[in-house]
Amino acid sequence: MTTKEITATNSTNHNSKDDLLLARYARNCIEQHYGKLQSLSDLAALLRTDPAILDCAVQKMCGKNVVSLLAETRFLAAQRLLVQSSLTLNEISAAVGFEHTSEFAAAFHDYVGVNPWSFRQSPYHEIIHVIQGDMF
Q: Is 75 found in the same domain as 63?
């Protein structure tokens, strides 16, 4: 049996309760470590699980994959830091896991629709959408 077949078999052997638990662990780890996590593989290593199983569980429980969940968490944190702190863009960029401020600014613009400098100048109530409720 190949590694791919084993992963597929393991994925089908997981029940919804296992998926829910794994997805919750993943969400908690992302919330605590979003500034250090760079990929699905990083999160899977932290949780000591197979990346394909992890991504499948998160997709089933959240409706989005790990990479999307990580990006969402990073950019929500960046939005909050831009509005609620006096940290510089360099500091915010590093805090949310970007090595270079220019990469952060470009990714922020792509994700949010405005650059971080413009975002910081906008009124708070118009720019941050608070996600209410639990995802799981």
A: no
